[in-house]
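## Example record

The block below lists the input lines for one assembly entry, exactly as stored, with component labels intact.
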Amino acid sequence: MLGLIGKLAANGVVGLNERNCQYIMRYNPRRLYPLVDDKLATKRLAMAAGLPVPELYGVISSHREVRDLPTIVAAHRDFVVKPAQGSGGDGILVVSARVKDRNVYRLVDGSIMGEDDIEHHLSNIISGQYSLGGHRDIALVEYCVKFDATFAEHSFRGVPDIRVIVFRGYPVMGMVRLPTRRSHGKANLHQGAVGAGLHLATGRTTYGVTGNTTVTEHPDTGAAIAGLQIPQWEYLLQFAARCYELTGLGYLGVDIVLDRDKGPMLLELNARPGLNIQIANRCGLRPRLELAEAEPAGASVEERVAFAMNTLATAAPALN
Amino acid sequence: MQGYKIWVFALALFLIGGGLFLYKWRGLGYPLLPEEETRIWTVEATLQFDAGERSMPVKATLHIPGLTPGFAVLDENFVSRGFGFTTRLVAGGRQVQWAIRRAKGPQTLYYRAVVYKDPAEAENDTTPPFPTAPVLGEPLDTALQELVAQVREQSADPASFTVELLKRLADSTGDQNVGLLLAGEADPTARARTAVTVLAAAQIPARLMRGVNLVDRERQARIVPWLEVHDGDRWLYFDPATGAQGLPENFLTWWRGDDPLYTMDGGGKTEIRFAVQRNEADPVLVAERRAQTVQSRIADFSLFSLPIQTQAVYAVLLMIPLGALVVVFLRNVVGITTFGTFMPVLVALAFRETQVLAGVVLFSLVVTLGLLFRFFMENLRLLLVPRLASVLIIVVLLMAVISIVFHQLGLDMGLSVGLFPMVILTMTIERMSIVWEERGPMEAIQQGVGSLIVAAICFTVMEIDVLKHLFFVFPELLLWVLAICLLMGRYSGYRLLELVRFKSLAAPPG
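Predicted structure tokens for the full assembly:
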């Protein structure tokens, strides 16, 4: 066991306690949390800074307004309902089609929801069933991202998203999360999605992980995980790096989606990003975090991304 | 900087807690282990007399223990039907006086003292003044002077003087002076009495004292004379019969001086008897008493000063921090996920009544049935708070039904289900159903089992008798728990289960 600890430490694997103690508590002031824990606040912030986000169709903030849903989505065929303060992707509904006159909704995973069901779901969101502390919450109704053709072979019904860990403004590690049948089209690793590590310099996928085990093929489509090229990689890294100035949070998980028509959009920010990204990249975070920590503050977005692609990418090679 | 502060703070807590603990343990004698018992002795003096045929006033006095080197009095009482009594300090120590206006026939008066060993007790004694030289009249004065001169010749200090003197007094045939002074009486009491006189002539303060030897059980304990000599610094004790220095191991001083043990005014056929009985006592009681006698404020702040029912509450409450510490360890060092941070501690408290196996069975039963109901309610489209309330009501009903059914089946374990924290159960059911729907049944069951395992471990730790005893008698040990908690709050190493999670990353670099 001590040998295992020694090997993990030597490979720079960061554990939850270390992440909380050394990075989150030091670099993420608590007063900034509401900016990322409330998706509506994040969205407003990003819009003010000129970062593209999925268009907000409407907000449902009281039980009375639940009945307004048909009006809010009247002009849209598909949409997403999510709790503003949800965590880990809980409570998100992706509606892919609507039978207009009967108000019956078809979800992205193929199931059907009646008007009653969706209204119940909305009132659960408002009551705080999915919010972090069980507080009252609001439901966001927003644009449903059309996924980019890049991922046609690598996704089961949902929209893949790209997670980049940004530390002090430096992108240090990235992965793409591919929805599966098990994850019901959601892009969350602990709901069963596949995470694929991304080479920081090139934006090419390397290894895959589902749960805590490595995979080489997408479990539903059978496509090879490795070798997929993410388009506009440098731009995506700059996009992620800008979120540091946006929030002021030093240790940040940035989730970006690629839309077929509208390009990269900021989906959400996370002040406590998970650590499975290390398994997907077969690489520990610590060497890169330490390098980025040693850099002086005040570098521009372009400089930081260049540093990430040139220095951080080669700092800790992937493990066997 | 942060790390350095936390170590200093933790160390301070550790030292304060440890210091208090050591003082109470070593200094005041609070017991370290629950089964430890302190020896106590009950000594009973029975004074019997006959007041005669006609009713008449009776007054009796009896010396009772006052200053008792090596022992402390835990409790004493006087049993004397119809008699009024007072205690007072007299030259020989303490005395009780019983009095009655009219008494007839045989009467019995009791004095009972409960004593325990306390080495600190002797230090309360005072330094006596130098005695005045005795005037006995010739030829005794000359004999006294000669004896003092001879003994002084062959001794160096009060102790050796006394030993030499007692040796000469023991052999009254050889020395004419000794024979004269003893005046024919040769029993140890007379020798001790004579020794006090000779020592006074030599300017050495001395006292005759009488006491009883405390044995395991003795219905007719004898009064034993002893000689106390002050060497200018402290009191020394000598056996007047053998001249040996020191007190017997279990010698309880009863009174000092040459006064009689009791006086009787108005009664006849007086008889006194001493009975000794050894018992075991709760050492905490003795320690509390000791703390009071040395005027320590500690005893005032002790939990034992609370009413018994409140004490029982705190006996449980003081174990909760320990349960919390176990939770911290299992979550942050081992990495087990549970429903709700401290839910396992509360469930563990309920296990105290049900025991682990029955507790786990009952808990699973209530949660499973509650979950079934919760899934059924999902179809009813209730708002969150009314739904929680409904689950709570169902939980209470389930508990009642389980109790009744188990009782009908003749199984006692079902009765204690009522002690489960219902609100916690309700929240557990709610959260479990959400995890079930959002993350799948596997994760929900995994977290549920994890919670139960943590609860069982908490229970096991919180039920260790030695720990229960230690935390109740030494609540300052909670400062240690706090210190450990603080240090664990800065633990940034891997969690045990993370080693499994990241196992694939233990490969050599490629």
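Residues 2-27 of chain B form the longest helix (26 residues). DSSP finds 16 helices and 13 strands in chain B.
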